[in-house]
Amino acid sequence: MLKGKKYFLVILFLLGLILPAQICAASLEQMIGQMIMVGFRGDSVDEQSPVAADIQRHGIGGVILFDYDFQKGSFERNIKSPKQLGKLIADLQELSGDNTLLIAVDQEGGRVSRLKKSYGFRDSVSQSYLGNIDVIETTLNYSLRTAQDLSELGINLNLAPVVDLNINPDNPVIGSMDRSFSHDPQVVVRHAWEVINAHRVFHVLTAIKHFPGHGSSIDDSHLGLVDVTDTWAETELLPFMELMADPGCDMIMTAHIYNRNLDPHWPATMSERIINGILRQRLGFDGVVISDDMQMKAIREHFSLDLALEMTINAGVDMIIFGNNLIYEQDIAARSIAIISNLVEEGRVSRERIRESYERIMNLKSGLKPMEQRDCSFCLK
After folding, report:
1. Which of 18, 39, 143, 213 meets the CB 3.0–4.6 Å disulfide criterion with 323?
2. pLDDT tens digits for 86-96?
3. How many CB atoms sit inside 10 A of residue 380's CB?
């Protein structure tokens, strides 16, 4: 009887019906902590650094690195040189112990590059440049180079590629910043595919963005609410649909755009109709959904923090970014975890919904490999 029960449990585990012990044993606060990613100030850390408390006491799931401090108007943030950055990342992971941190950066190339040539890193080109010349081998080579650099530093998540269509070339946050490969969905898919797969060679996760499409906007969601009701087109979903199928997506980042035709009440990040309805149910994505920075004015100036968190989590978003760059709130991780805990206690967010996100995040992290285990057969010299 015992032998039969043992085999039965093994079968259930293989079928995914029994959760790993780490997931089963996690407390509510631990699960919520993994849903939070924050930015911080400083090019070094120790146990007295504010971010150390976020990592060790609150168990946040990740951090995001910047080279420029927007609020201070200074290039004194997290990144100075390859050697300094490598040590910073190693120290962050040491603080996290057995709970691997997602170390994220926006390294799209061109103007949106945190690892700049002036700091000693290799130069990069924009997605617009790559899409315009439309030579797949060139995109692959630049992407392999970027992925190798990130991997060797210990950065395990690149918040790229941008798969927004360049519908409005004057778009202040996409088109005019040279962040889009093309207005043609197939060109976007071909080049984004190379970016994703190049990063997988070096075991660096990617996040395609910004769902359901930011390329037609005439305003910048960093600066306020962006309404794309009259400019958005269904074709903006095509890159997400195709990349979800092949090669598949590690993460998808939301856009803080408002579209009355998709949801008459809420911006996409906070919209159950758009995230659960379109992305998860209609398109079938069951991976990690990560928000754009919740401190952008599109969210911060229109919604309280507790309402934004309640709606975003219930919409189906798994990981929530507070860049701490547009504004700086040292206690944002602790406050957010406390608010989400209260939302669960009050029945406004279910415990099952929290566990769902936690499982997705932990499953994603389980695929990350330590540096010494990575295959460097594609390494560029």
Report:
1. 39
2. 999 999 999 99
3. 11
